[in-house]
Amino acid sequence: MSFVFFDTETTGLKRGFDQILHFAAIKTDANLNEVARFEVRSRLLPHVLPHPAALLTNGLPIEQLTDANLPSHYTMVGQIRNALMSWSPAIFVGFNSIRFDEEMLRHALFQCLYPAFLTSNHRNCRADALGLVMAADAVSPVQLVVPLSAEGRRTFRLQELAAANGVAQTRAHDALSDVLATVELCRLVYQRSPELWQRFVRFSNKAAVADFVEAEDGFVLTEFFGGQAYHAAVTSIGSDPDQANGRLCLNLNADLSQLAAMNDVELRNCLAVKPCPIRSLRINAAPTLTALLDAPGHVLNECEISGLEDKARQVKADPAFCARLVAAYVASREPYPLSPHIEERIYNGFPSRDDEARMAAFHDVRWEERFAIVQSLDDERLRWFGLRLIYSEARSVLPKTTRAEVERYLTNQMINDGSGCLTFDRAMAETDELLMAGTASDVLLNQYRTYLQNRSARVAAFRSQLALPVAAKGYS
Fold first, then answer.
1. Which residues bind Mg(2+) 1 (predicted)?
2. Using CB atoms within 10 A of its CB, is residue 84 exposed (0-12), middle (13-18) or buried (19+)?
């Protein structure tokens, strides 16, 4: 199977609110030879305020982001989708992509009325190169050089890793440059540790992960927090009833007799305390897994494999005990409240089949016909995103009252704390803080500060002309 390596540069880190500005991808064959590449940028959405730290990181002046010659966000997302669909099926890989770039891509697709889960569907698989290099360092440290930060801590930042391992980068935090660096780091692991690479490829497929977790008596789950690897010998105790792709595992260092002797309340209270002996994994998130027989001694804390296998078989032979553990663990969770912000509800249900058909039709008709399609959508998330799309791309086709409501809602988001968005006041405060700290990019920050002042003044003047009440109509 081929690989698609990709990266995004964005206006900030907040999923659902920030946008992709620059997307790049490289397709390779199974041996990591480049086959094709794709790159696209977009201009800033009218309702998005970039975080000044993101502008600094990416080296992007605000004038570049507002260049009218750049494609609109909707046009860019459509081009991204077309390119990635033409390269499917493939294994999609980025650097910290499962936690960030994939999420940004999913939100961008969904908010442009496309199916969100492109990299998980169409027989595609997904994996994360950050997990690969961390696993290489944890399991076989000689394969890659992990540099130290200025504070003396090991760092897995892409640009530092690339430099330490002789991978040239023309420009850090440029999407295409970061993709090229990611490909080169993967080639190093591919060449130096074929077994680790094969495991990486194998577990990019969620069916393979599910089979492994179910079939193995015990295995090692490696998780990464704060740039550190944490290994645990575990055994699967069942599926997560709240997440179709979730699996729950018991740490084999736990005292089984003590857990079995607890009543339900005691068990629930025990599992609510950190560190919890139950670990969760997602079979569709390319977890780092190692068979017990393949794990080096330091990963197993020098425990005997036979003893771990015996404990794992003991747990699996008692389905009632496993069921009690799963029930107690689920009951110990804090409830996850529904976000008040519609932008953060991407995982609150899939669109219906009828809405999927309407989403597809939306892209195939003239803008004058799209408003009627948006009105017919059952999903309130899609209705709002559809209205916002039409407003951004062809606002003249909206009825005057609808257009005014969208304008009021979007401008309210830009000025009201608690809207979920970066507001003018917050953006100005963050910019001033960075200016006070002193950087080599004061010109870029001062340009952005002027932009914020001018834009907020225009928004204030515009809002004063709206013949609607100040309070925002709730689309969320």
1. 7
2. buried
Domain boundary among 162, 193, 224: 193
pLDDT digits (tens, 9 = 90+) for 147-186: 988 888 888 999 999 999 999 887 877 999 999 999 999 9
Instruction: Please state the residue numbers annotated as binding site for Mg(2+).
Output: 7, 9, 178
Neighbours of 12 (CB within 10 A): 22
Contact 390, 402 (CB under 8 A): no
Name 94's bridge partners. 128
Task: Name the burial class of residue 14, with classes exposed (0-12), middle (13-18) and buried (19+) by CB atoms within 10 angstroms of its CB.
Answer: middle
Residue 467 confidence (pLDDT): 55
Indicate the angle between helix axes 73-87 and 380-394, nearest 10 degrees. 120
Same domain, yes or no: 359 and 459: yes
Provide the pLDDT for residue 474: 42
Residue 32 lies in a domain: yes
Residue ranges of the annotated binding site for substrate are 9, 157
My answer on whether 151 and 13 are in the same domain is: yes
**Confidence (pLDDT) at 229:** 81
Q: What are the DSSP calls for 264-309, one per residue?
A: HHHHHHHHTSSSPSEEEEETTS--EEEEGGGS-TTTTTT--HHHHH
**Model pLDDT, residue 335:** 84
For residue range 278-297, list pLDDT tens digits in order. 999 999 999 999 999 988 88
Give the length of the chain. 476
Distance CA 51, CA 306 (A): 53
In the chain, which residues have pLDDT < 70? Answer: 440, 467-476
Based on the domain organization, do 216 and 115 belong to the same domain? no
Annotated binding site: 7, 9, 157, 178
Last residue of a domain, one of 133, 162, 193: 193
Same domain, yes or no, for 45 and 157? yes
Phi, psi of 307 (to 5 degrees): -65, -40
**Residue 324 sits in a domain of what CATH number?**
3.30.1520.20
In the 3-class helix/strand/coil scheme, how is 193-244 assigned residue by residue? CHHHHHHHHHCCCHHHHHHHHHHCCCEEEEEEECCEEEEEEEEEEEECCCCC
Determine the structural domain holding residue 244 and report its residue range. Answer: 205-332
